Amino acid sequence: MSYIVSIGKYVGMIKGVFSKPERFKVYYTRTLTEIETIGINSAGIVAILSVFMGAVISLQTASNMDSPLLPKYTIGYITRSSTILEFSPTIISLILAGKVGSNIASEVGTMRVTEQIDALEIMGVNSLSFLVLPKVIAAVFFFPFLIICSMGLSIIGGYYAVTLSGLASHEEFTFGIRAFFKTSDITYALIKTCVFAFIIVTVSSYYGYFTKGGALDVGKSSTQAVVWSSIVILLTNFILTQLILM
Amino acid sequence: MIEVKDINKSFGDNHVLHDFSAEFEAGQVNLIIGQSGQGKSVLTKCIVGLMEVDSGSVLYNGRDFSKMKRKERKEIRTEIGMLFQGSALFDSMTVEENIMFPLKMFTKMSKKEMQERADFCLDRVNLKGRNKLLPAELSGGMMKRVAIARAISMKPKYLFCDEPNSGLDPSTSILIDNLIQEITYEYGMTTVVITHDMNSVIEIGDHIVFIHNGRNWWQGTKEEIIKTDNQEIIDFVYASKFMKSLKGKLA
Ligand SMILES: Nc1ncnc2c1ncn2[C@@H]1O[C@H](COP(=O)(O)OP(=O)(O)OP(=O)(O)O)[C@@H](O)[C@H]1O
Ligand SMILES: [Mg+2]
After folding, report:
1. B71 & B5 share domain
2. Which among B7, B20, B161 has a CA at the least distance from the CA of B80?
3. Candidate from B82, B86, B104 with C-beta closest to A26
4. Is residue A119 classed exposed, middle or buried when 0-12, 13-18 and 19+ CB atoms within 10 A define those classes?
5. Given a cut of 70, is residue A106 above it in pLDDT?
6. Which of A170, B122, B157, B164 has the least CB density, counted as fewest CB within 10 Å?
7. How many alpha carbons fall within 13 Å on the CB side of residue B157?
C-alpha cells in the first residue's frame, strides 16, 4: 500500500518538475552548472572504472577460452559487445547512481530541512522545476557522452591488458573489435543510458525533496536514494533488455 | 490586511491550532507572541500557504487564499516577504545573489539595478560591503539580517518575520526592530512578526496577539499588554525573577 502511495507521490512530483519555468535564462545557467556538477565532475571516476572494467573483461574472457577451436579475435569481440551492451550503460549508471544520486538527495534534502525550499515557494518559485528540471536535463544530455567515453576507454583498457600480457596480438584483438558490428547496439545502449539518467535524478530528488526532519534524516534520504535508484535501474534494465532484444 | 478565520490544524493527535482567528491590519506591526511550541511558526506557515489548514480560511485583502487559482497564488506570493526562523538563505549563493534572486526571477531589472537594490537593502541591515560572502561565512545574526534584506528586496506588501531578533545582541536587535517598523510604515505593509522578545513587544507592537493552547487568547496594543491582568499573559511576560521584581516595584 505505501508503495502505491509513494509511486503516486513520485508521479505528482514529475508533473511538478515539468511545469513551465519562470525565467528561462535562470534555468539555462542552472543547467550549465548542473552539467558541471553532475556530469563533468563524474568524468574522472567513470574513466578509471571503465579502463579497469575493460581490462578485466578481456582478461577473464581470454583465460576462460580453453578450446583451441575458438579464434583469438573472440576476446576482442566479447569485450566490445559486453562493454557496449551492458557494462558501460548499466554498471557505470549504477556507479553514477551512487555518486550523483547521493549528492542530489543530500543537496535537495538539506534545502528541505533548512527551509530553503519553503523560501523558494514563498517567493512564488516552483521549487520542483527550479531544483530538479536543470538536473534532469543535464543528466539526460550529458550521461550519454560519459557512456560513449566509457565504452571507448573500456575497449582501450581491454586492448592493453590482452596485448601487453601476450594473450592475443594487436591484429587479433582489433579484428574482434570490428567483427559483426551493429550500430543499433550503440543506439540501444544510449537509450538505456538516458532512461537511467532520468531515473537517477528523479528518484534521488524524490528522496531529497520529501525529506522530513533534520540532518540525520538527510543522511537517511541519501542512502535510500542510492538504494532505490539502483533497484529501479536494475528492474528497468531487465524490462528494456526484454523489450529491445525480443 | 490579512484576516485569519477559524483555522484548525493538527498533526495526528497533536491539535496545534483551535479555531484560531485574528486580523492583521496594513501599515502596522502585528506581533504574535506565545510560549515555545504553541504553534506560532505553524500559524504563519498556514497563513502563507506553506502548510494546508484542516479547516478555516485566510483572506488577503478580502481574497480567500485557499480558493485562489495557482496563478493568483503565485502573484500573492511575489508580494510576500518572509524571514524564516532559521534564516533559510540559499547556501550555494553569495549574500548579494541571495538578495538579487527574487528580483532576477520576477522583475525585468537590469543587472545594475539589481545590484543597486541589493546594496540598498544590505545598507539598511547594516551589512554594507558584505556582498560577496557566502552564508557559511556569516554569523547567525548576520544571516538573519541578510534574510531580512532578501525578504524586503521586492518591496513586499506582506512581511512575515519568524523571530527576527532571536540570537542577536540587544543593539542589533533594536536595529532590526526599528528597521521592520520603519519599512512597515514607509511601504504601508502588513507586517506580522513572531517574537519572544519583550523589548520588541514594547518597542514596536502596534497590535499584539497572544497565542495560547492554539487559540487567540488575548489581543491588544502595547499599552494594553502592560496593564492587562490576564493571568496567562502575566505568567508569560513576568516569567523571569528580574521581571517579577520589576513588577513588584512598579506596583
Ligand atoms: N511539520 C510538523 N510535523 C509535525 N508536527 C509539527 C510540525 N511542525 C510543528 N509541529 C508541532 O506543532 C507544534 C507547534 O510548533 P511551532 O513550531 O509552531 O511552535 P512555535 O510556537 O513556533 O515555537 P518556538 O517559539 O519554539 O519556535 C509543536 O508541538 C510541534 O511539535
Ligand atoms: Mg517557531
Report:
1. yes
2. B161
3. B104
4. buried
5. yes
6. A170
7. 11
Are B99 and B168 members of one domain?
Answer: no
Cβ < 5 A residues, ion ligand 2: B 41
- State the maximum Cα–Cα separation within chain A, in Å, rounded to a whole number: 72
Cell representation of residue A246: 525480443
Q: What's the distance, Cα to Cα, between the start and end of chain A in Å?
A: 33
Q: How far apart are CA B54 and CA A81, in angstroms?
A: 58
B237 vs chain A: nearest CA distance in angstroms?
30
- What pLDDT digit, counting tens, does each position of A125-153 carry? 999 999 999 999 999 999 999 999 999 99
Q: Which domain holds residue B27?
A: 1-79+158-221
CATH of the domain at B4: 3.40.50.300
List CB contacts (< 8 A) between A125 and chain B. Answer: 105
What is the predicted ipTM? Answer: 0.89
Indicate the pTM of the whole model: 0.90
Q: Which residue has the cell 560572502?
A: B133
pLDDT digits 0-9 by tens, A31-73: 999 999 999 999 999 999 999 999 999 999 888 877 777 788 8
Tally of domains in chain B: 2
Among B149, B114, B147, B101, smallest CA distance to B128 is for B149
Distance in Å, CA A111 to ligand 1 centroid: 19
Q: Of A184, A182, A171, A156, whose CA–CA distance to A79 is shortest? A: A156
Give the span between the Cα atoms of A166 and A177, in whole angstroms. 17
Give the three cell numbers for residue A99.
555518486
Query: Which residue reads 519568524 in cell numbers?
Result: B162
